[in-house]
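Hi team,

Filling in the usual template for the complex we talked about on Friday. All components are listed, including any nucleic acid strands or ligand strings, so the model treats them as one assembly.

SUBMITTER: L.P.
PURPOSE: interface mapping
COMPONENTS: two
RESIDUES: 769
SEQUENCES:
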Amino acid sequence: MSIGHPEIPKPSLTGFTVPLMAVAGLLLGYVVGTAKGQPLLGLIAGAAVAAALGFVLASFVPDRRVGRLGTAVVAAIAGFVMAGVSGAVVGVIIGLIVSWFAYWLSTGDYRSTVPVYATAGDVLWHNTFKLICGLIFFFLIAPIVVVLPLSFNAQDFFTFTPEMLAFDPEGYSLKHYRDFFNNPDWTRPLKNSFIIAPLATIISVSLGTLAAIGLSQSHVPGRRAIMAILISPMIVPLIISATGMFFFYSKLGNWMEGNLGLSQDFIGYVKVVLAHAVLGIPFVIITVTATLVGFDRSLTRAAANMGAGPVRTFFKVQMPLILPGVISGGLFAFITSFDEVVVVLFVGSASQKTLPWQMFTGLREQISPTILAVATVLVTFSIILLTTVELLRRRSERLRGMSPT
Amino acid sequence: MKLTTTLLATSALVVSAGAASAIDLTLVSWGGAYQKSQLKAYAEPYMAANPDVNIIWDESSAEAVAKLRAMNEAGNLTWDLVDVDAADSFRLCDEGLAMEYDPDELLAPAPDGTPASEDFGAQIVNDCYIPQIVYSTTFGYRTDLVGDTPPSSICDVFDLEAYPGKRSLEKRPINNMEWALLCDGVAKEDIYDVLATDEGQQQALAKLDTIKDQVIWWSAGADTPQLLADGEVVMGSTYNGRHFSAIAEQNQPIGMLWDAQVFSFDGWIIPTGLPEDRLAVVKDFLKFATDTQRLADQAKYISYGPARASSAPLVGQHAELGIDMAPHMPTDPANAQNVFYYNFEFWADYRDDIDAKFQAWLAG
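RESULT (copied from the run log):
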């Protein structure tokens, strides 16, 4: 692919590649120049350097690998001279991007994913569309990515220190991770979250699945109204639900303490688990209902015909088929409980403090990067959890021959 | 289904094991370095001496008044001892949410036998309040961003020419109004007379107006240290202990501007309506946690002055850094040349009114 595409004419060097490179250089030069306090100089120098680079790469360096590596090395050296080690890293990144752009333009690669008959406008729109998609992706992921390096900060502030920017090992530390795993302020909430979330998930999955199956029967009167009520915890502002729950569960707790003689601590867990189960149920209902749409009713009739009772039919026929929906609903319920901060602040007492609660107070009272370490651990945990479940689901579909591939 | 059963059983075990082994005592505090000083100076020693008591912390002091009201209404009190600032204690005491107590019965006398009521003296500001520490709200500045002559007077905060750049102020009228009037030429002893009038309030707001577009408003005590560490502001007000922590423990290039610092107190209140058995534990803990030695110990961890007169001579060095704590105390004579005392009576009467005007000014 290094010589471009035979069917695409090579774009004009001076009329296309060089001017566009200059525009790209203008933007990058402005960013770098602003960082150095001289935006205007950066603007001009960036445009000139990028245009020259585009010309040189397109005319004299046909081997793409050599060109990109060479640009990266030169940019790294320039960056190192300007701003030390961190400058070198930025230089490598900018060098790779700019040289990729140069080849992408000059070899006609930019047309490679559109049909040959596309007009210039079509090509422009196609690539703009890709750029917009990329920007949306960046917009979604950038705030999370910023958190990761900050969690290794050696200082107790949410700040990239000069040592960190210079990649000095002194600027990095695992002390916030140590704090998370050793400090009872964090280990206790961690334990609480892992007690409360699974229990709430089990309750909401059981109840939500039953409700979804019941509501999918055509003979249930007032199905839509019941559905709307069941889903309402998702729609009513959380702070309103939380206030109501606070008074409701306070009375319930007092009753349980007075009449059943349970300890306050235990009642506290019961209250939070029930409240979180309520929040999780709508997610389960929605996902399971969606799966039930594709469920073939004649299967249950066939099972009944062969003498299976409703319970047996449910567990042997219906449940395995709607399991993907149940599992994803359960995942949502788990994450809802695991992430929830408003309701637990109202309903729980300090002995039921969960991780999000601790993070919330931590942010309010003491801006400690331990929160970022926790966030990093949680993000990793969520990714692992979702990947595992997805892989398991695909495997079981493959085993049962359900997957189209 | 087996997995479910196992999960349920283990969780139930964990929950009940936690409940059975100890009496849980829920203390409400502010989090951060301050709560850590309480933990080290009295909670941990108390738990070591009483293994059957387990202390749990709830960092809800900022919402203490609202939460105690809600708990009282719902009949569901989950707190045992609440750390509040003196101003909030007035409200809680008036509403009957905090318990009145007898200092000489509840609190330990000083080592030389001075009864607690004399040892704490005027710092017991109302019938419910059990003071722990004296703190001040004061300014810190970035030593590397203020040029060759660091600010030495409170009025440097209002001097944008000598000290250009953003400053952070608390998002409420208290303290800011007093400082504004002082720097607008009002004599210190007249400030509250002037501030009681509408013209005086407008005068203070007009003075604040001169720096309004250069102010970042904070509401949590941790904000200013973060802003100073970032270099986003050149100076900012917060509690002196937060500045100390940033300077001495985090080695930030921050200096203290002690001029016109405002003294206030922080202490415990016992919520009304505790059952007898829990109240007994709370009283036992309080007697220990507010004795002369314990309050002096607290100053090893944070630069707040002990509320007992008999604790002051016992203040020593920082527990980890080994530096002398006395020069970092707001009450140190070198730091306390020009101080305000939080005026509880004035702000109890005028807070709602001035708050409304201040917020309107902020939004305008």
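MY TAKE: Residues 13-20 of chain B have pLDDT under 50 and may be disordered. The interface with chain A takes residues 4, 7-8, 11, 14-16, 18-20, 24, 26, 28, 30-33, 35, 56-60, 62, 70, 73-76, 78-79, 220-223, 225-226, 229-230, 249-250 of chain B (CB under 8 Å).

Thanks, L.
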